[in-house]
Amino acid sequence: MRTSIATVSLSGSLTEKLTAASRAGFDGVEIFENDLLASPLPPEEIRARCADLGLAIELYQPMRDIEAVPEAEFARNLRRARHKFEVMRRLGADTVLVCSSVSPLAEDDDALAAGQLSQLGDLAQEFGVRVAYEALAWGRHVSTYDHAWRIVEAAGHPALGTCLDSFHILSRGSDPKGIADIPGEKIFFLQLADAPLLAMDVLQWSRHYRCFPGQGGFDVAGLVRHVLSTGYDGPLSLEIFNDVFRQAEAGPTAVDAQRSLLVLQETVGLSEPPAPVVPTGIAFAELVTPDAEPVTALLAALGFTRTARHRGKPVDLWQQGEARILVNTGPALRRDGTALAAIGLESPDPEGAARRAEALLAPVLPRRRTPEDARLDAVAAPDGTELFFCAPETPELPGWRADFADTSGQLPQEIGAERPAPGQLPTATGVHRIDHLALTQPWHHFDEATLFHRSVLGLQAQESVDVADPYGLLRSRAVTTPDGSVRIALSVGAAPGEDGAHAQHIALATDDVVAAARRFRDSGGRLLRIPANYYDDLAARFDFSEGELETYQDLGILYDRDAGGAFRHCYTRTVGRVFFELVQREPGYRGYGAQNAPVRLAAQHTAKRLTGG
Questions:
Q1: pLDDT value of residue 2
Q2: Whole-angstrom Cα distance, residue 513 to residue 399?
Q3: Are 63 and 241 in contact (CB under 8 A)?
Q4: How crowded is residue 457: how many other Cβ atoms within 10 Å of its Cβ?
Q5: Given 3-state DSSP classes, what are the helix, strand and coil percentages for the chain, each rounded to the nearest 5?
Q6: Is residue 334 very low, low, confident or very high in pLDDT (cuts 50, 70, 90)?
Q7: Between the chain's N and C termini, which has fewer beta carbons within 10 Å?
Q8: In Å, how far are 172, 357, 508 from 322, measured between CA atoms?
Q9: pLDDT per residue over 24-35, tens digit each?
Q10: Which of 569, 559, 459 is nearest to 509 (CA)?
Q11: Cα(254)–Cα(12) distance, rounded to whole angstroms?
């Protein structure tokens, strides 16, 4: 089906919005009146610009407070409508959105509303315009789609139909099944928006918190199925009022919007992009750093051993169990400290995963490689993290590690590394795999990141969690495979700097976090100190064996429990923008210790202030 987006959904000038919509692959746009009024271009030039960009002007909107008003007021409304229809003729737009009235002058009289809308239809016909009547969820007398349809049906005018808006329907809890009773040819337009499920005034909810389908809590796909059952053949159009989107760059927002419609069309059976290839594990996490010494010292204290070096690049492989960390010191890397730059995802079909990602508009990353290098397809996540799809290793296809030369039997100086001081050789801490990765998102990419990881990678999104930070509120949402082999926690917060709110971290799974923490500390590692008040509260909430809580306090271990089991975890200090977490997760525990996050964040702020992190 054709896809369209309302210009109000994007930031920038009208020409910038149109360009972004075209580049993202939209077929058309809804021109929002305020965008037209603020544009220096006359309607004829906007029409020509849209034509040059391959965009149809699907809708002009909105016309407000038209119907069910006293006769004198309606005469003024018709004069206003005539002017707008003339503007639409110059624009080349043939459908106008008329919202149900919120005017205090409006009367609760369906017959009057139908009659006046019929007169509006007569005027519209003179200009070749169709009128799409929409029930606002906060309309004064008409606030449901079925009520709006009854008025349109009563008017019986060929130029008058209805506009269905998923937000207005689903925010009120209306049952969309009744849509199937509306003839498809009388559904003149379909506007789509999702939203998080919030208990608040519906007008404020609509004006500030709409999001793209798949990013909120509404069953937008179910509503679309009902619309399609009527034979509706118009565009799928996005109308999103969102404070974040209107401040973010228009280009990436438009791509995110188009991706949401691609996923929606797949969900309702309108298209068949390559099927998702769910990753089966984390092959590696890659750190980039201008100075390897602090991070390699931290890895050594955590019990990792440098086992291999890339044959052609300044990249070392550090490993413990199945947990693998790449340390990249290439000359063209970031200068603001160590950061988590790439993730290797084990995939049963890397090429299929890459095709899926490309079909859903993920940027495919070019990769310079020699004929001897393993083929690694990679795409960029919304935050810029590189995602590599890694094939299973077999004797015939050794996989990505074939690019690395084994260094486990060499002395440090033979591989260009510093010789460790006596007593500093790594002592294993019992780490056996990467439990999860935590990625801090740019403030305007959080919802986009959730949709990306869910649709492109086939991960399942858990409920969003709000966490109190000493300097703001941090929002977090985990995406995971059903078996937990891949877990990624996405977060966004307002606190500045290199503390916990903006850092990324790698959580390492161990079967005994107490032993792992002790070995780490004995090897010279510095654990994050947790205030004594936390442990006083912990003693009131849970029962512990004798000496257990004292051990946790000594090592800075935090504790959480849900219906499935317990979770014990502690943190290293931050290096650059990265820190590590040691976790002991009982098999049934599904969370990430969110209950403890405010304490951890406060402790990281304190550590940064007192010691520089």
A1: 97
A2: 32
A3: no
A4: 26
A5: 35, 25, 40
A6: low
A7: N
A8: 49, 26, 10
A9: 999 999 999 999
A10: 569
A11: 12
